[in-house]
Amino acid sequence: MSEGHTAIDWDSARASNLANWEDRVPLHEEAYGIDALDDPDHLTSVVRTDLAALAPFLPDGSVSGLNVCHLQCHIGTDTLSLARAGARVTGVDFSPSALASATRLAARLGLDATWVEADVLDARAAVGGSFDLVYTSIGTITWLPDLDRWAAQVAGLLRAGGTFYIRDGHPILYALDENAEGLQLRYPYFGTGEALMWDDESTYAGDGRVAHPRTYEWAHPLSEIINSLIRAGLQILWVDEGKTLPWKFSPRMVEVPDGFAWPEAERDLVPCTYTIVARKTGELPTP
Q1: Staple partner for 234: which of 41, 88, 229, 251, CB 3.0–4.6 Å?
Q2: Domains of the chain: residue spans and CATH
Q3: 3-class DSSP string for the chain
């Protein structure tokens, strides 16, 4: 349930969000279908979708042999799918429990990965080296108040000529009332600078409950997301909007291949995701 806008400071919001995400780790270890990764040919549905979208923008259409930095990687299932696709991966997340889970999973699967505990807003200072691909997907930047600072981290992590990829929930989706009988706006599409405060014991995956239910998120319209990347010096190569999600945003959504969608009669009325591919065309100052 949303409790409305609040002018909470970032440190307090971060601490509350971190406690919530720490609680999610054991729940998501059960709900994410990790056992499927024991099949050496298996990739998560998120990564399968993203690799297909990325292929036209990558050398030989593949991440094989590329240095990839996965921002906000959570428990590493998608990161390790990128590794399985041939990438050299570094996963970044602010949750120590999530990274401990990712480390255990990498060892279990016999996959190499580097894990860095850091806020995504401080990623450039925390992560060594530069990357051919910076990757983020999905359910990520609503947790951040400052997209200019976020985009500066992305640009700083990329080598010249490197590619940035993001697929995330569409801002108009987040403006909808997930429990309404139809498609009905409830929350702000345009950001106000203040956070939306939520108290919700559930997570988007599984039936478990968290001990720390309060979280804070920020609305970012699509124009703000794109312009933050442009201001960071990145060249926008491609923007797409999709009709499916890898999680069930609303009880009214129906299951489709690799995700969920609105009932067919509503599917063409509102996007569920956006995808942006951008490129760093030259060296930029380190943020």
Answers
A1: 229
A2: 2-280 (3.40.50.150)
A3: CEEEEECCCHHHHHHHHHHHHHHHHHHHHHHCCHHHHHCCCCCCHHHHHHHHHHHHHCHHHCCCCCEEEEECCCCCHHHHHHHHCCCEEEEEECCHHHHHHHHHHHHHHCCCCEEEECCHHHHHHHCCCCEEEEEEECCCHHHCCCHHHHHHHHHHHEEEEEEEEEEEECHHHHCECCCCCCCCECCCCCCCCCEEEEECCCCCCCCCCCCCCEEEECCCCHHHHHHHHHHCCEEEEEEEEECCECCCCCCCCEEECCEEECCHHHCCCCCCEEEEEEEECCCCCCC
